[in-house]
## 1
Amino acid sequence: MAPTDETGRTSRQASPFGTTPPGRPPADPATGPGVGMPRWLPRAVVLVLGLYAAFQLGTWAFHQLTGLLINILIAFFLALAIEPAVSWMASRGMRRGLAAGIVFVAVMIVSAGFVILLGSMLAGQIVKIVEDFPDYLDSVINWINTHFHTDLKSVDVQEGLLRSDWLRNYVQHSATGVLDVSAQVLGGLFQLLTIALFSFYFAADGPRLRRTICSVLPPARQAEVLRAWEIAVNKTGGYIYSRGLMALISGIAHYILLQILGVPYAPVLGVWVGLVSQFIPTIGTYLAGALPMLIAFTVDPWYALWVLIFVVVYQQFENYMLQPKLTSKTVDIHPAVAFGSVIAGTALLGAVGALIAIPAVATLQAFLGAYVKRYAVTDDPRVHGHRRGGPGTGLLTRAKLLWGRRPAATGEPGDESREPRDSREPGEPQDSREPGQGSS
């Protein structure tokens, strides 16, 4: 029977050489056989899958709600634009909701009246163009026959147009595209209604919205939010003011041109050009210039060409001279920054981004300007664009110095510059010592 110790365990056999053989090291419970995966691994896998699913769901929801978010953004800036008028009426004792409603009704009445007047004018001009189309066709054919010595007849041209495949395909595509145009019109009206509704809520419940936002922030952050809100109101109002001023200048300029040419409905066309070119970004200029050209064509085809030339020239003047100056004065941003912000806004949000880019950048610049530490500027002339240097370093001055040294360098006879120059002051006595005589 094997000997045991007091714990009841069998003692190891002694080695015949008098040493105890080394025992097997105990197995590590974390790495030994039969140990499963770590406890944290399943939870980590579930967490990663959940985050990925949440990211995909958020991305899908954002893409689906992009249109609504853009409409809300437009409504917010429109509410900021009418905020001064609503606040002024509310400070006179009127309820804020009633004041916002009055402002919106006034804007809608003016817009509807302008659209109705413009629509009736446009319809009358289209009817006139259709009625006078045979006369225009005859005049064009006579001009072609006179200058190119051809023998075209208006009857043959009209029959060719009526029997052409191009006209038949155009009529078919126009008939099938009526439903698409109607759907787009209804969608645009619904979008305008959504923007107007959100703008009214933002303008009427502006103080409540500010209190709601400030209620979840500490007092220091509340002051910053209210300051940013006030800056946004001021900058957006300045932007609307600058756009309105440019619309007025553009409308007056085009009205004068159309009045000189004798184009009918010149006042309405001037207002059309001013408003559309300033408040519809990207394509507003082309829409604004197309209608006066069309109506000028009904008077004289050459008048349409003059209108086109004037629109192009004025647009360049406005883009490079008028708009940067007015924008920098009213919105207080550099013209280059304004131009770059419009390009960036167009790349991000299209026409909407081009419309709200300048007030957004102006608000951000004014808000961040309060947190930038500024120092006194040195009096270094390089600050003002001048080169730093002592007197006589200019190009003209150095040329004069070189020209004055020229005879001495060439050694021409009669050079007076080689004579010893008397450096004494007037009235000082001459020194009687000989050259090289030292002082006593």
## 2
Amino acid sequence: MTSSTVDDLDTDLDPSRLTAGNLLDRDLAKVVAFAESGLFEEYVVYENHGDWVIAAGILGSVVMTGRTVTTTWDGVDSVSDWSDDPALALQDSLAALPVQHWNAYGWVSFEFSAYTHCVPAGRPLGESTLAHLIIPRVEITFGRSLGDDIVVTGGTPADAAALTDVLRRVTAVVPPSSGAVDVFTDTDSYRERAAAAIDEVRRGDYTKVILSRTVPVTFDVDLPNTYRVGRLANTPARSFLLNLGDIAAAGFSPELVVAVDGRRRVSAEPLAGTRALGVGPEADAAARNDLEEDPKEIAEHAVSVRTAFREVASVSTGDSTTVTDFMSVRERGSVQHLASTVRGLLRDDLSPWDAFAAVFPAVTASGIPKRESIDAIARLDNGERGLYSGAVVRASSTGTLEAALVLRAVYQQQGRTWLRAGAGIVAQSTPDREFDETCEKLTSVAPYLIRRQHPSAVEVSGTEVSGADAFDVSAFDVEG
């Protein structure tokens, strides 16, 4: 393993004026500089409360479809069939990697849950990707806990110097938003579909389902700068920027689906119950009071917490499962939510992927009971969700795992760009109110879309570089 720490010098942000806000922007500018450098074609950027890791290049990968798992190492593919348990298949594929220590980054689609919960109607046909994880050639960490340092792990000193040179070249200038997206028009029959779900709930088919709608974006979006501007305007639990396979996305996750830390503590953070935020101090306070007193929102949150508690308890020891924070209000960009935290201690005979399988998909993105709600989503939600309401995942051979819920994001795939948001349908729902809730959530992203204005390339040491072969990565390893 090669690891180097380099002082972060010579930005155009005056050190005497580095407030918390522009410290955040300085780190976001590093992400943009990396993404625009063209040094790597595929990468995952993952943020946890002001600490960033950029996982770049591919030493190995695990890609799962509804039929097979393809493990690639050093350019050589190994394809195997899987059945019954997709989480176990991912676990076994990662455990079989020809390296003792690894960190994996990537995403899991919502449709992964149809296999976990045995929902035939929800299983995608063909070769839709259910999970895409990479073992990166290099990891770059920086942020609040590292101060002015940038740590580059993997590769040669020359490689580290090239990356550090790129990350130093940050700018305090934030590009203006230059694209308008109408999120207030119902273009895909959301109210009609919500009414159908309300009827099914009242009939007793299930208790709750989250239905979503898609809003197309008709201009070419600059994802790295959208991530930067959107992150400055949001207060996520986690955030991410990724480009893997044929999909790219930038998002501001409002909650963790599940996390397992180094002490084998399992955490889930269900959010349910929503009101708008950012209208003004008085309106925001009134909305918060209404949220905390609304019987429909309280009931919706309580049943979600009960489900999360049972799921965490199913993989935890004895009576270790507790609710450590119940029904507080957490602000997430343009909305505020009722939020709780559930924790337990993972049983000795189980792995973090067992915890993932128990909790995924988030109850706040699927419904109650999960099997019936996933089936309803497959029937009523206008096509596969893919990355939307799935998870961005980071996992390690040391036994840690985090899965951040993919909401409040912008997506690009095969020439299309879109936004997507949903709302929880219960017996007390009305189609108009649930539609309004999707608008409130879409406003966390839509105003911050940046139109692409220039090709993705920068100069490094006087030479223009672009693509995965811009510098030598042959000496990278992933230990640690």
## 3
Amino acid sequence: MPKPRAVVIGSGIGGLTAAVALHQSGWQVTVLERAESLEPVGAGIGLAPNAQRALDVIGLGDEIRELAAWQGDGGMRNPGGRWLSRTNSAAAAERFGGPLVLVHRATLIDRIASRLPAAAVRTGSPGQLADPGATAGRPARVATPDGEIEADLVIGADGINSGVRRTLFPDHPGPAYAGFTTWRVVVPAPDRPFEPHETWGPGTLWGTQPLKDGRIYAYAAAVAPAGARADDEKAELLRRFGGWHDPIPGIIAAVEPGQVLRNDVHHLIDPLPSFHRGRTVLLGDAAHAMAPNLGQGGNQAIEDGIVLAHHAAPGGDLGAGLAAYSAQRLPRTTDIVRKAAKVARLMSLTSTPAVLVRETLISAVSRLGPGIVLRTFDGIADWQPPQRTYAAGAQDVHDVRH
């Protein structure tokens, strides 16, 4: 009996995770990517324990854990350098069953893609949903430059501006501007050691985090009009953050011209009615794009891919499986999108009185202990996949937590 065929439109983190999980469960998988290579757009990504446990299902979790670079203390500061809250890697690992791992997106993409057959990924091959397969007995169809592909399952993993989403839900308003822009850089580590930190100023944010390879992943955000750009983004970072505490000025100084990635933040603050229609399903940013303030965008895409493959086992009722996927993923991701938006609004405060109140509250909460600060991620970072894994403490098959 031939294997059922799945077509994944988009080769981002979520799409590739779904492709590997489906391949391992017995699907014939084709990944369509419009770009000429799998070189990802982006810099670093933080993988929380929930994503690491999801990656355990496809045999990748321990590889990722080995890349953990954060050891010891860290926390939140103000631009002058005063610590507003403190936590440490051990407390986070104890609470959620693993460390936070910062990796370069290129490293993660390469590790996931290496678990697919070489012919499974077609670069330079954009895909457009021609028929979602909503009619009983009919396959879904995807249009490509080389002709149409019929599939038992189509996965829209084509990002925040998803064409698949627009085809499935043409009346949905789509992504909305979250009110701020972001910058990301990867640079060599400074000579002087530092403790990982996220620093909040009036309507601004800066984060400095170590990577395992010795480089530094830094990110920044600021309230700004949509579409605003500077002729020289490094100079813009110096203007906004050059007077902040060490090591921020040195990090900016180490940036090479043209290295700065800048993107406005959009999110799907209005949830979709469903994540599927017919034989077609959405995941990742196509389904639930969120502000980056909880660091969960890529993590939730990885969860999506694993849960989708669990419910789309060959030989089962695909319609029921996709309905179960939507029923489990939509409430969870909607809640995280809203939580991320709340943190984004807190970060976006610009008036001096509001910023002082924010700093006072953060400091007061921090004095109650690192567990209070980490509580923000309860119900997020402690998620367990539906399959048995080799992750520490996962002795039994767990139900997916909503």
